[in-house]
Design goal:
Strand content: 15-25%
CATH superfamily of the largest domain: Thiamin diphosphate (ThDP)-binding fold, Pyr/PP domains
Strand order of the largest sheet: 3-2-4-5-7-6
Number of helices: 19
Helix content: 25-40%
CATH topology of the largest domain: Rossmann fold
CATH architecture of the largest domain: 3-Layer(aba) Sandwich
Largest sheet: 6 strands, parallel
CATH class of the largest domain: Alpha Beta
Distance between the termini: 82 Å
Low-confidence stretches: none
Shape: globular
């Protein structure tokens, strides 16, 4: 019998496609609707590892972290119905963060569709608004077609998630596999030459230009080229919400980030700029402070918008110069330019850098217990340490006082999803096992995915969780104090003993109350490796860096 007539089970063929595309980790919660896939993964741990989670939302968030770090789609497998709805939290993160992801969902058998069979959902309708493409593989002979298309869709243009549902009976089918596919790479496309010349002309006549970098799909080469472009042209570089790892925060041209709460000197600098070069960000609600720092549709500044999907440019803000390009191609081309306006922008860049240095200094928030702890991380951790967090006021300290110095060092959802820190750290620890990984969470954020401590222990991962415990949903309490002072409703929390809780999983633990205790606990966690948790109880009167309740 000839080799090309040998038949293979559909589930094995599916796993073969992932391996062929260089996927070495997949995340999920096992389910009966895709049992053949679990069987196909058996014995292949040397080439593709299945990381078992306790809840599908965490698995999808870990897949998002993998996608952010590697540029390859993070792959997640979940069962139908409840498994898919749980996983949707991570899919939404990937969509708003422009992260490549493929979610595979076990589906009811083909002869049961449209009957509201057990846990049946129409995934095209469910995921339609939060994905780039949703499809169902009804014919096993088309698995390779669907998977390779999913890979291309996930990584092309503006990256994002794809959902493929797998009828469980289809996975048992026997097929003749087509020839193995080629490895799919991210397509690169440079901006139009006339648009680049138009940008050069704008830079030549500008008095106070400002770069804002952000968005997904960045590569190490693109990040390096961004820095060179800024250096050669003496341009200040700020970054959009939770995009701080796009430029070494120690670089003299880095001037800070636009966050949830306005960064005062950056708001002034943006208002004072006459040319805004947006490389990669969508210029969304968080970065623009609810579209108030930049008022749509026509800005008073000239806007040069670089984005990998043409339909996004002009969606909210009318550009002066449109550059449809991936960020690596644009930055590489711009980095090759010679100086356009010699010496013109240096003084402003130095001034903004000095303002960033002051804002980054923990002494600027007075007697704040957390600020020096987060600043201490800069002193002792390696430059490529990875910091993961979800949502909450605690992230204000992290984003303000920690310096992100290497690509991939910040994994945080721009969608503001709570619970991301721990599963994101698991994704990072599996994708980049040689880097130190830290998960940060408030007590409310941590409790949304705290069961994934079991995942970290089960897979013998090295990561440290730092929990800031103020026994409340702090962000919502801050909003309440602003809108309805002293009328507390629904934001108080009763927590377990986090140290005892983590110890029950076998983690190394510590509870600290001051800087000296934190220094000691961090040093012990780094020496011990494995899973560690450090709890920092926080005074209930502290809401944000330098801000307290009366």
């Amino acid at each position: 019998m000839k080799h090309d007539t040998l038949k293979t089970r559909a589930a094995d063929h599916l796993v073969d496609q992932l391996v062929a595309q260089g996927i070495d980790q997949v995340y999920g919660v096992p389910g009966e609707s895709y049992l053949p896939v679990l069987d196909a993964l058996h014995g292949r741990e040397d080439v593709i590892r299945y990381v078992t989670f306790r809840q599908e939302g965490g698995a999808a968030m870990a897949a998002d972290a993998y996608g952010k770090l590697t540029g390859k789609p993070g792959v997640c497998f979940v069962t139908r119905g409840p498994g898919a709805t749980n996983a949707s939290a991570g899919v939404h993160v990937a969509f708003q963060d422009s992260t490549p992801m493929i979610l595979f969902i076990g589906q009811v058998a083909r002869n049961m569709t449209e009957r509201e069979a057990f846990q049946e959902i129409d995934y095209r309708r469910m995921f339609g608004q939060m994905t780039k493409w949703v499809a169902e593989i009804d014919d096993a002979s088309r698995i390779q077609e669907f998977v390779t298309r999913a890979m291309r869709v996930a990584i092309s243009g503006r990256p994002g998630p794809v959902v493929l549902s797998l009828p469980e009976d289809m996975l048992y089918d026997e097929i003749v596999a087509p020839p193995a596919p080629a490895r799919i790479d991210v397509p690169r496309y440079a901006p139009a030459p006339d648009a680049m010349e138009a940008l050069k002309a704008r830079i030549a006549t500008a008095k106070k230009p400002l770069i804002i970098a952000g968005g997904g799909g960045w590569t190490n080469r693109g990040i390096a080229a961004l820095a060179k472009f800024a250096e050669v042209q003496n341009l200040p570089v700020a970054v959009s919400f939770r995009s701080q790892a796009l430029m070494d925060n120690d670089h003299p041209n880095y001037v800070g980030h636009f966050s949830v709460g306005q960064t005062p000197y950056l708001a002034d600098a943006l208002a004072d700029s006459d040319l805004l070069i947006a490389i990669g960000p969508r210029l969304g609600e968080m970065t623009t402070a609810g579209y108030t720092l930049l008022e749509p549709p026509v800005l008073k500044q000239d806007l040069a918008h670089v984005f990998p999907a043409g339909e996004e440019i002009g969606r909210v803000y009318e550009p002066t110069v449109s550059l449809v390009s991936d960020t690596e191609s644009f930055c590489s081309a711009a980095a090759a330019w010679s100086r356009i306006a010699p010496g013109t922008f240096s003084e402003r860049t130095v001034e903004l850098r000095a303002q960033y240095e002051g804002y980054n200094n923990p002494a600027t928030v007075g007697d704040d217990p957390l600020a020096p702890m987060f600043a201490h991380l800069n002193e002792v951790l390696p430059r490529d340490a990875i910091f993961c967090n979800g949502a909450g006021n605690y992230s204000g300290w992290l984003h303000r006082f920690v310096r992100y110095r290497a690509p991939g060092s910040q994994l945080a959802p721009t969608s503001g999803s709570m619970g991301y820190g721990l599963p994101g750290a698991i994704g990072a620890a599996t994708a980049a096992p040689d880097r130190e990984v830290y998960a940060f969470a408030g007590d409310g954020c941590f409790m949304m995915t705290c069961q994934e401590l079991a995942t970290a222990m089960h897979h013998d991962l090295n990561l440290t969780v730092i929990v800031i415990d103020n026994s409340r949903y702090g962000t919502i309490r801050a909003h309440q104090e602003r809108e309805y002072p002293k009328r507390i409703s629904g934001t108080g929390l009763t927590n377990p003993d986090f140290v005892a809780f983590a110890a029950s999983f076998g983690a190394g633990t510590a509870r600290v109350h001051d800087l000296d205790g934190f220094k000691s606990a961090l040093a012990e966690a780094r020496a011990r490796k494995g899973l560690n948790l450090i709890e920092i109880p926080l005074d209930h009167g502290i809401l944000a860096p330098g801000k307290r309740l009366d």
